[in-house]
Amino acid sequence: MQTTYIETQKIxxxxxxxxxxxDYKLGRIxxxxxxxxxxxxxxxxxxxxxxxxxxxxxxxxxxKVFRNxxxxxxxxxxxxxxxxxxxxxxxxxxxxLYADTSVEREPASAGRxxxxxxxxxxxxEDGSWKNLMAQKNISSDISPTAxxxxxxxxxxxxxxxYKSVQFEGSEKFSNNGNEIAFGTIxxxxxxxxxxxxxxxxxxxxxxxxxVSIWDDGYGISVPTKNQRAKADISEMLSGxxxxxxxxxxxxxxxxxxxxxPALLDAYARAxxxxxxxxxxxxxxxxxxTQPQGHSTSGSHERYKNEERLSWEADFDxxxxxxxxxxxxxxxxxGKEEVIATAEELDAIDDEAKKTVKAGQKxxxxxxxxxxxDLSKAVLPLVENLKGQNAEIENYITHFNKLVSKAKKxxxxxxxxxxxxxxxxxxxxRNQLIQKYNEILEVEKDNYSSHLYSQSQWKAENVKEIKPVxxxxxxxxxxxxxxxxxxxxxxEKYPETLVFGEDAGNIGDVNQGLEGMQEKYGEVxxxxxxxxxxxxxxxxxxxxxxxxxxIAEIQYLDYILYCLQGMxxxxxxxxxxxxxxxxxxVIIRTxxxxxxxxxxxxxxxxxxxxxxxxxxxxxxxNLTKAAGFYNTMLQSDDPAVIVECLNGYRLKExxxxxxxxxxxxxxKIEVTKEGKDxxxxxxxxxxxxxxxxxxxxxxxxxxxxxxxxxxxxPFDLTNEIAESVxxxxxxxxxxxxxxxxxxxxxxxxxxxxxKAFRYLDSDPLTIAANDHRPAYASDxxxxxxxxADDMVEKIYAMFNETNPQKYPAIF
Length: 810
What we know:
single chain; 810 residues; alpha/beta; 7-stranded mixed sheet; 6-stranded parallel sheet; 24 strands; 41% helix; 13% strand
C-alpha cells in the first residue's frame, strides 16, 4: 500500500524552507500568468480569458498529495495545480490562450479549447495507452458547470474495481487500486444536480475521491445565498458526514483559502481518508478571493461593494502567504531560523514576472510564426495571379493592411483569388490550387480530426465474423442469445464490467444478464441507484483508466438524463484532446415499439445530432446486438447500442460461436431483395417493414428492404445508393418524429451518396407522429408507423405514376 503525505513528512528545516519558497515562487508565477493573460486578451491578442488567480494556495496544497496514477477531473481555474504537477508550463498556458494548434506546444487540446482547460495525454500518437502509473493524470476539462462530476465518480470507482480486477496490462492503470480521483468545482456550481448526484453515488459506493469546492462567495455575479438552500455548503452537506462504524457517507473538511498551514493539514487528512480507507472527502475551501473577477468578459467591481473588494485585497492568498513567511521563525539549536526576508521574496516576485514574460513571448512568437510561415508560402502564389484579375491587387492590399493576421485571413485571400480567376487554367493558378489543397489538409487535421478514433482499433477496422449455425443450434428467446453472449464476453475480457439499474441481482429487467452476477461477482456485474447521469459518468471515468465498462441505461427514454454528459463529455473526449485521451464506453439501452408515453419514445434525432463522436448502433434483433457488443469490445470508439425492447421473448436461432461473431459498423444488410422500391429502416420497425413488404408483393410491388443497422457510421460503402439505382424509388421508414432520424438518413442517401440521380419519384419518409405514443397496442398503432400506413403510402407512390395499374385505394 502506498504511504500518504502525512506519513512521509519528516524533513529537515532546510528542506521545509525550500518547499515553502518553491510554493511561493510557483504561486507568484501562476498569479503573473493570470495578470499577463488578462492583458493579452484586453489588448486583442487572445479571444477570451478565465484564470485561477486567488486559488493558488489550496491548489499548491492539493498538488502535494497528488501522486503518479492519480486522476483529476476539474474546473477551469486550476492552473496552479496543473503547474504544480508538471501538466502545464508557462509556454503551454499562453499557447492555449492564443489557440495554438500545435500538440507539442499546447498538449492539452491543441488549441481546441479555451484557456484554463487542462489535460494530460494518456495515449501515444498511435492511440495506444501510455503507462498512466508513470505520470500524474488530468482528464480533459469541460466548461459546462458540474459536468466534470459524473466522470469523476468513474475515475474514483476504477480504483475500487482494480482492487479485485487484474488483466494483462492492468499495471499501466493501477497499483492495486491505491489511486485517488481528485475533483474541483466552483461553489456556485454545487447548485447543479450533477454535483449532488455524483456525491450521493460516491458516498453510497465508498470510492476514493476528494472533491475541492472553491468558495469565493459568488457564481459570477450572484451571491452564494441565492444559489443554495444554505450559504454554507458544508452545513448543507452535514447529513452526508459518515458516522463511526458505518460504511456510508463522506468526510467533510472546511479550510480557509489563505491559511497555508491549515491547507497542508486539510489535504494531508483528505488524502489519508481517501487513499487508506477508500472514503470520499469534500474539502470546502472558503474565503477564496478572485482578484480579477470572473473572466475577461466583465468586471467584478460591478457587483462587489467596496467592503468586499477591500477584504479581498487584504485576504488575497498570496498576500497572506507572504505575511506568514515573513512572520515565521523557529529556534534550532539556539539559533533563530527564518524562511525568507522581504528582500528575498521581492526577488522571487521579480523573477516570477520575468519567467512569465519570457514564456509568454516565446508562446506568442511560436504562434505567430505558424501564421507568418503560412503567409510566406501562400502570398507569392497569390501575387503571381495579379495579372489575371485586377481585383487581386485589391485583395492583397487589404490583406497587407491587416494589423493582426489569422489563418482565416490567409485562407480568405486564397479563396477570393481563386474565385476571381475562375474559368482560367494557368500554371500559376494551378500552383495556387495545389498549395491551397495542401494547407487545407493540414488545417482539417488541426481543427476537425479525431472526432472518432483514428487508431488501428477504430470500430471500422473490426472484421466481420458471421454467426455460425449447425443442426444443433437451438431456437431460444432473444434474451438468451444476448445473455449467453455476455457470459462469453465476461469470460474472455476480464476488464469488462456492466452496471445499471437492476443489472445485477435480477439480471436486468429483461433477463439479458440472468445469472451473470452470481457467476462473475458484484464488482463486474453491479446494480446502481436510479441516477442515469452518473451511470454514464461511471463508464466514462472507468474507460479513461483502461477498463471496458458497459453502462446500462434501462430504457432509451431515460437516456435523456445522461444526454448532456454524452454530448459535452463522452462525444468530445478524443476531439477536444486531439487524440490525447479516449473513453471507449459502451452504453447499453433498449427501446422502440413498446407502449406508453414513458417507455416507447424514440429520441434518436437528439442522440444523432447531439452526440457526434459516439457510434450509434441500432440492431434489429438480439443476435445482431450481441454481435455489436463483440465488435465494440475490440474497438476503442465509444458507442450506444439500442437493443429491441420487444425482441427479448421472440425466438432466434442461437449461434454456435457466441462471443466471437461480429457485426461490422457502417454496414447495411439487404434483408429482402426487390426491384421496384427501396425501403430503408432499422431496429424494431424492421419487422413491420418486412410485413408491409410482403403485403406490397401481393399488390404487385417488389420491395427491397434494407436494415441500416448502424446510424453512425452510416453505410460506409454506399450500398443503399446502389439499391436505389436499381429500384429508382426510395422510402425511409422510422419511428422517430418527423424530421428526425428519417431526415438524417435521407440526407445521407440523397446528398452524400448522390442517390437523387436515380429517382423516378419523390423520396418518401414515413415517420411517427410528433407526440409520444399513447398507451397500449392501439396507442402504438395510431402513433407510430403501422404496416397499414406503410402499405398505403408506398402504394400511393405507384398510383401517382401509373394510376391504371395501381388504382387509388381511397
